[in-house]
C-alpha cells in the first residue's frame, strides 16, 4: 500500500506536485471531447482574437462570446466534499493557497463578464453525470448572452 499523503517527505511532495498539470487535464479533455463530438468548435486556453483573456479560460467560443473553465474541485476550493477537504500537513499554506486561487478566479470571472463574455465553470465532480454535463454545456452554449 502507498504512503499516506501526510507522511511524504518534502522532496516526495515536490515531485508529486511537479506532475500536476494546468492544461490538458483529464477533466478538460473529457469536456473537449464531448463538445467536439456535438459539433462545437473552440479555441484553447484563453486565446481569442485580440489576445489572451483574463484567467486563460480552458475553452473559448469567440463567435458566441462564451468561455468555459474546467476546474479541479480541490485546487479551486469547490463546495463539494473533495473541494472542502483540508490537508493536515502544512494546513495554513494550503488554506492560503486555495483561498487565493478562489479569489483570483472570482476576479477573473468578473473581468470577463465586464468585457461582455458569458462564463461557465465546470467542476470536476460534475463530470460523473455525463448526461447532466452534456445538458449543462449545451444549454450554456445555445442560450443568448447574459
UniProtKB/TrEMBL annotation:
It is an enzyme of class 3 (hydrolase). GO terms for molecular function: endonuclease activity; hydrolase activity. The gene is vsr. Keywords: DNA damage, DNA repair, Endonuclease, Hydrolase, Nuclease. Belongs to the vsr family. This is Very short patch repair endonuclease. It comes from Arthrobacter cavernae. Pfam families: Vsr (PF03852). May nick specific sequences that contain T:G mispairs resulting from m5C-deamination. Its EC number is 3.1.-.-.
Amino acid at each position: 500500500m502507498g504512503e499516506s499523503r501526510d507522511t511524504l517527505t518534502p522532496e516526495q511532495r515536490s515531485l508529486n506536485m511537479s506532475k500536476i498539470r494546468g492544461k490538458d487535464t483529464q477533466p478538460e479533455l473529457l469536456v473537449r471531447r464531448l463538445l467536439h463530438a456535438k459539433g462545437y468548435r473552440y479555441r484553447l486556453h484563453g486565446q481569442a482574437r485580440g489576445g489572451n483573456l483574463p484567467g486563460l479560460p480552458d475553452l473559448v467560443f469567440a463567435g458566441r462570446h462564451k468561455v468555459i473553465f474546467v476546474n479541479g474541485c480541490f485546487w479551486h476550493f469547490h463546495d463539494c466534499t473533495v473541494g472542502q477537504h483540508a490537508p493536515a500537513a502544512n494546513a495554513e499554506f494550503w488554506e492560503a493557497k486555495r483561498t487565493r486561487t478562489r479569489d483570483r478566479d472570482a476576479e477573473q470571472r468578473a473581468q470577463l463578464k465586464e468585457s461582455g463574455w458569458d462564463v461557465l465553470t465546470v467542476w470536476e465532480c460534475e463530470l460523473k453525470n455525463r448526461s447532466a454535463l452534456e445538458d449543462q454545456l449545451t444549454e450554456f452554449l445555445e442560450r443568448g448572452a447574459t
